[in-house]
Amino acid sequence: MGGSARLVPELIVLDIGRSLAFWVDLIGFRISYDRPEEGFAYLDRNGAAVMLEQRDPAARQWITDTLARPFGRGINFQIEVSGVGPILARLGEANWPLYMDCEDKWYRVGACEVGQRQFLVQDPDGYLLRVAEDLGERPLAAGDLSR
Q1: Partner of 55 at 20 to 30 A CA spacing, among 14, 72, 119, 143?
Q2: What are the tens digits of pLDDT across the range 100-137?
Q3: How many structural domains are present in the chain?
Q4: Residue at 118 is within a domain
C-alpha cells in the first residue's frame, strides 16, 4: 500500500484538490491510497513517494512554525523520471510557470561526471521540485576537478 520508499516527505498543503491536480495530472504521480475525509493522499511515481496533507488547524499536525508561502524554503525535491519532455508538455498546456527552464547539467562524482536534463517547478504551495532525466556519465577531463 505505502510502497517501499525508505524516506517519504509529508507536505502540508492548503488545498488537497489543487495539489493533487498538480502532482497527479501534471507531474505524473498516482494515488497509492488516500483518506479524503482527512485531506490526505500518499502518492507514488515509479518509487518516488510523497504524502500530501491538507492544512487543518483543528487537526493534530506536526507543524514546527508558522506556514508562509513558499512552503519548504531551502529544499528542493529531485524526482528522477525516464523523460522530462512529457511533463514539460503537460505543464506548458496548463500554462504552469517553470521556476528554472530545462537544462542539461553535468555534476562531478569522483573521477567522472553524471548528467541530467532537469528543470525546476513549484507546486501550488511553493514546494520546489527538480524533475530530472538521467543522461548517463562521462569521463572527467584530465586534471579537471573544477566542475
Answers
A1: 119
A2: 999 999 999 999 999 999 999 999 999 999 999 999 99
A3: 1
A4: yes
